[in-house]
Amino acid sequence: MLLQVLLTGVLIGSVYSLVAVGLTLVWGLMDIINFAHGEFLMISMYTTFWLYALLKFDPLASLPIAVGVVALVGVLTYKLVVKRVANAPGLMALLATFGLSLFIRNLAQFLWSPNYRFVSESLLTDKRFIIGDLIIGLPQLVAAVGSFAMTLIIALLIKKTKTGRAIQATAQSKDIAELMGVNTERIYAITFAISGACVGVAGALLANTFPVYPECGAMYGLLAFVIVALGGFGNIWGAFYAGILIGLAETLGGFYLGTQFKYAIAFLIYLLVLQFRPKGLFGW
Amino acid sequence: MKNRALYLIFAAVLVLPFAITNVNFQHVMIMFLIFASLGESWNIITGFAGQTSFGHAAFFGIGAYTSTVLFYKFGVSPWVGMLLGAGIAAVVSVIVSYPCFRLRGHYFAIATLAVAEIIKQLFVSWDYVEGATGISIPVVEDSFIAMQFHGSKIPYFLIGFALFFLIVMVARSIEKSKMGFYLKAIRESHEAAEALGINPRKYKLLAMMISSALTALLGTLYAQYILYIDPFMVFSLEISMKIVLLSVLGGLGNIYGPIIGAAILIPLSEYTRVFLGGTGKGIDLMIYGALIVLIACFEPHGIIGLLKKRGKKRGALYAKTNA
Lengths: 284, 323
Prior knowledge:
Chain A is mainly α and 284 residues long. Chain A has 11 helices and 2 strands. Chain B is an all-alpha fold and 323 residues long. Chain B has one domain. Chain B has a two-stranded antiparallel ribbon with strand order 1-2. Chains A and B meet through helix 3, helix 4, helix 9 and helix 11 of A and helix 5, helix 11 and helix 13 of B.
């Protein structure tokens, strides 16, 4: 039973990680908290749902489309909103993205009502492996593997490609990166696109198992803040491990103390870990 | 001379609900007073001392719950509950902030958010305070002792005004005192402040204590005004964020910011709700969100920034108020 709980924790944690990776990129690069990140996830889930409901697309088939849609939303968010407030003092960027998240969430409610919607039949629905006592749902497994793969791709992208190195340079010093010929405006837009792509993947994979409704991204967004800080701002692998840790804390806490405490445990883990690593697990 | 703007604001606020007796308007004024005061309280720890708190709903909720539970279970006057709630909030704030003040910047901000969420979860599953169901405050006849007035909103307004006056004056006297300068030194540079012989942790804790105690006072008023509370309402991230937003919107770090911010944001949110909220389709919050984005994009330095700019050009009143 413990093994089952641990496994469930790792599987859901892996998706948390990917959502957090998207957030940590922007946060690390621009020092901006994107409060609308959870809403990006919601957009991806709705995209997947509507492609399924109207055109009978399987969620796996609509994944690339969802990625494209949310990446575009990310770029637009940067160009239309974040760009204007990026250099403002204090928490003005937070104010803007919070307003944006309210807007997107309630726009979804206005357009599609607050009802829960489900992708009821897909390639993965109800398929599972049974190994001994262990039950592994295929949708969860695919979500976890897909999330891990996407995290890996992003990490390689940042580390190995020219664009990735330009992102790193801009994160370290915008001015010097510009002196080196980096078009930082473009880099910011690209980073928002990558950030959107991350939640695009996560949303399409989650739509297989979770209901889709206007508030569905909110809790993921909130957990993503904690995970990003737990991993250390801007640290991709930090966010990844922290996501797994939070997933485990949530399922273990939920199992042993009752599900009403599962998020409280996750937040408590953050407070405890930060006592020993005040800049997150992998921060310095 | 310097105080003139402040006293003008007090006078204007006090006169308005008597001049315009529309009930909706009086409601908006009460909400304005509550949130402007919350912003002022929050400003002490975040604006002055630079420690961003995303979790002030925790103290607001503690204030609301302390007085409500005492009245509901034991019939204790909410006035007693209000003071006790402030005391409890101050104690809780010290207990949770002491470890959290090891953290800097965003790490601290996320920690306050985590603390508030944990406290919310605890109240949700705490049966003695009715858990997730919440508490309806037993309705009694109009009475000052029981802090319930059903005939008119004016008594609530006057209590709100008294708290607003008190909190602005506390914030102002902190700002002008030695402690205010210490806090601002800590905000600008923790290390430099320490090198000058200031004990940052002591002053941050003190600021947090005062800030959370004042926040709790408003929790009680809010509970008595709405006459119903549940954890999702009073401990919500929405409340924490509304406090942050209106202060940021007005301008951080001086006592006019939260007043100006609340004067814009609260009527905006209350009136969009009154006029558009009935449909249940979220149009009100959609427009509210869009307006916040627009204000942030076109006035990224806060309203105070705008007034300062104008003030410098014209040598007007506002330039002096921010000295």
